[in-house]
Amino acid sequence: MSMQFDQFNHGIFLVAVLGIVYDPHTKKILIGKRNDDPYVKGLSWCFPGGRPSYDDDLEASLQNMIKIKTGLKTKVERFIFARHYPENPEILAIYYLCSVGAKTDAQAQDSFVEVKWVKPTDVRDYFTTSLHPQIWEFLQSLD
Fold first, then answer.
1. 16 near 92, Cβ under 8 Å?
2. Segment 88-119, tens digit of pLDDT
3. 20 occurs within a structural domain
4. Which listed site, 41, 84, 85, 143, has its alpha carbon 20 to 30 Å from 92?
5. How many angstroms separate the CA atoms of 96 and 111, rounded?
């Protein structure tokens, strides 16, 4: 039985899982640049991730999407925070801390046109969309 989601005016979200990929050796995180995001107007730099598949759990989907977009194998360490975007309140973003193995030479692939390792507190120099205070506080704790 298929549901007609257009009948709802709240409570139905497009879910995105996002990884704050942290390299403890360099104390940097990985961000990726997108062009013309179809869901969030003005989005450029962001954390890697995307919409999870129905076949895998959220963490496995996230690991797969990070590999597709950056070539990196990661491990999901823990859940951090969930929020919706003021730029598009229909999107529910779920953030996870991810660790990276010995290979840290990420390559922009799929929807990313560029990837970059940056200090956690430098994301404000790159992000063009809102950064929730709890995510900002978490990033500061990594710096």
1. yes
2. 888 899 999 999 987 789 999 998 999 999 99
3. yes
4. 143
5. 20
d(CA 81, CA 9): 24
User: In which residue are the tokens 């790159």 written?
Assistant: 126
Q: What is the pLDDT of residue 2?
A: 53
Q: 129 in a domain, yes or no?
A: yes
- The number of domains in the chain is 1
CA distance 64 to 56: 10
Residue 131 counted as domain residue = yes
CB of 76 within 8 A of CB of 112?
A: no
Of 6-15, 48-57, 70-79, give the lowest mean pLDDT range: 6-15
- Domain containing 97 — which CATH number? 3.90.79.10
Per the domain annotation, does 9 fall within a domain?
no
Estimate the share of the chain in helix, then strand, then coil, as percent rounded to the nearest 5.
20, 35, 40
**Predicted TM-score (pTM) of this structure:** 0.88
Contact, 129 vs 42, CB < 8 A?
Answer: yes
